[in-house]
Specification:
- The protein has one domain (5-126): 2,3-Dihydroxybiphenyl 1,2-Dioxygenase, domain 1.
- The chain is built from three helices and eight strands, in the order E-H-E-E-E-H-E-H-E-E-E.
- By secondary structure, it is of the alpha/beta class.
- It is globular and about 45 Å long.
- The protein has a four-stranded mixed sheet with strand order 1-4-3-2. Strands 5-8-7-6 form a four-stranded mixed sheet.
- It is 26% helix and 41% strand.
- The protein has helices at 13-23, 61-72, 85-94; strands at residues 5-10, 27-34, 37-43, 52-57, 78-81, 99-106, 109-115, 121-126.
- One of its GO terms (molecular function) is dioxygenase activity.
């Protein structure tokens, strides 16, 4: 068994597609109608056949509340791994990404946290 799709709730799929594609550099894998929304997934350019990230609308009240409470408590919705966190931090800062935590050493791993503009905090980690 393996993980094929994981999701993150987003307030606006179009804004999320721009952020995850243009700012983070992920590659759009699927974009098709799904009910009143879209089945909108992205993959890492380093592993285009790997795990897909579904940008899932937060239209259900429980999803919206969950997302808002995580954000209010400064809890990242998910984590992305990077090879060089300082390089990625500088690249994203130049693109206007707002960080709530700059790269910080945490017992042998370095983490940073940024706002995805779609209702989530995202953690980056260099192991």
């Amino acid at each position: 068994m393996k993980i094929v799709v994981t999701s993150v709730f987003v307030e606006d799929q179009e804004r999320a597609a721009h952020f995850y594609g243009e700012k983070l550099g992920f590659v759009k894998k699927h974009d098709m109608p799904a009910g009143g929304a879209r089945w909108l997934t992205f993959v890492s350019p380093e592993d285009t056949e790997g795990t897909e990230l579904l940008l899932e609308p937060n239209g259900h009240p429980a999803a919206k509340e969950y997302q808002q409470k995580l954000f209010a408590d400064n809890i990242p919705a998910t984590m992305f791994g990077v090879a060089d966190i300082w390089q990625e931090y500088r690249r994203l800062k130049e693109l206007g990404v707002r960080f709530t935590l700059e790269p910080t050493d945490m017992d042998g791993v370095t983490i940073a946290v940024f706002d995805d503009t779609c209702g989530n905090l995202i953690q980056m980690v260099e192991q």
